[in-house]
Design goal:
There is one protein chain. Helices cover 60% and strands 8% of the residues. It folds into 2 domains: 73 residues, Glutaredoxin; 132 residues, Glutathione S-transferase Yfyf (Class Pi), Chain A, domain 2 (Up-down Bundle). The protein is built from 10 helices and 4 strands, in the order E-H-E-H-E-E-H-H-H-H-H-H-H-H. It is α+β, with helices and mostly antiparallel strands. It binds glutathione. The site of glutathione has 11 residues, from helix 3.
């Protein structure tokens, strides 16, 4: 009997958490069904498969739900062994990459970017400083593991997903990238890869969406 292999990804196209999972699937050459969710009107599948956090992305593999983007990427790596490895076999290198991916997660870098996008004045300045401090620590920590062109994987996917959002945010705010040079050159380098180009193809749309998000947030703030 043929082995069942049903792969379903529930996601949000503009979310870095979804993007990094798509990058992992594309690296491995896995075919999957994709369902776009509406963050403000989630389908019953989200409540069924991620009752604890009710967040996306959610991978459902042969009926089994796997949640949390970093957990999903590791699952993909361990399940589809045929494609290139996402995490290196070397235990030290693997821990280094996990440490920095977790650092990005725990320091709420993406969430701070969203706050910067939606605020103005003093509040925005405070969030920009917080964001830049975190990026400074990150740049210092990862400078020696700057992308290895032959081994794109785990940390590249996390960096690429979060910092593509950062680049779009900067475009909306009209600021330049000179304060975060290492991460910008990392993302620029990754953007040349076919798998990244394909996954990030809607990024031009992201800038337009973020402009609307910002306008709405500022309008709501001025009305209160
Ligand atoms: N730690 C989670 C974060 C996922 C997350 O925050 N997803 C957002 C989209 S960017 C979401 O589903 N938000 C829905 C909500 O907050 O209700 C992961 O890595 O997967």
């Amino acid at each position: 009997m043929e082995k069942q292999n049903k792969v379903l990804l529930l996601g949000i196209w503009a979310s870095p958490y979804t993007k990094r999972v798509e990058l992992a699937f594309k690296l491995k050459g896995v075919t999957y069904e994709y369902v776009e969710e509406d963050m403000f009107n989630k389908s019953p599948l989200v409540f069924k498969y991620n009752p604890i956090h009710q967040r996306l992305p959610i991978l459902v593999h042969n009926g089994n739900p796997i949640v949390e983007s970093l957990v999903i990427i590791e699952y993909i790596d361990e399940t589809w062994k045929n494609g290139p490895p996402i995490l290196p076999a070397d235990p030290y290198k693997k821990r280094q990459l996990r440490f920095w991916a977790t650092f990005i997660h725990q320091s709420q870098l993406f969430e701070t970017m969203v706050k910067v996008l939606k605020s103005d004045g003093e509040e925005q300045e405070k969030d920009i400083n917080k964001m830049l401090e975190t990026i400074k620590v990150l740049e210092e920590g990862v400078k020696d593991i700057f992308p290895d062109d032959n081994n794109v994987g785990y940390l590249d996917f996390v960096i690429c997903s979060v910092f593509s959002f950062h680049v779009a945010m900067e475009e909306v705010l009209g600021v330049d990238s000179e304060k975060t040079p290492l991460l910008h050159s990392w993302v620029t380098k990754l953007n040349h890869l076919a798998l990244v180009k394909e996954t990030m193809a809607l990024n031009h749309k992201l800038v337009e969406v973020l402009k609307v998000v910002r306008q709405k947030a500022l309008k709501a703030a001025s009305a209160t």
